[in-house]
Amino acid sequence: RGTALQPLFKMSYSCSKVGDPHPGQPYKGGNFCAFLPDNQEGLKTAKLLKKAFERGLTFQIKSCNGEERVTWGFIPHKTSRDGGKARNGYPDALYLHEVSTVL
Fold first, then answer.
1. What is d(CA 87, CA 43) in angstroms, rounded to the nearest whole number?
2. What are the residue boundaries of the structural domains of the chain, listed by start?
């Protein structure tokens, strides 16, 4: 199936909490997009990614040029439909196995 699922995450501006680089400081949000194949394994991975998001494991706050901002966390996401592994896209035959192992 050539179609891809497209989860979109919208993170608002807010204040960081204990465990973040600078607790109590405001941070900049953003829009994040990731792609999964529209097949059984992709749907299974989407459910695991949803649990990771609900547990606060998908994103982290980092300092960048003196500004706190939301970035991807340690769970790998495919942010492009093409370009291969080198460009965080497809094709990447091992991605679903690798992300399932991390999750």
1. 22
2. 5-102
> Do 9 and 56 touch, CB atoms closer than 8 A?
no
| Cis amide prior to 91 (ω within 30 degrees) | yes
**Cα–chain-centroid distance for residue 2?**
22
Percent of the chain with pLDDT over 70: 79
Q: How far apart are CA 59 and CA 34, in angstroms?
A: 13
Contact between residue 41 and residue 17 where contact means Cβ atoms under 8 Å apart: no
Render pLDDT for 25-67 as a digit per residue (tens, 0 to 9). Answer: 777 878 888 888 888 998 899 999 989 988 888 888 888 887 8
pTM greater than the 0.85 cutoff:
no
**Topology classification of domain 5-102:** Enolase-like; domain 1 (3.30.390)
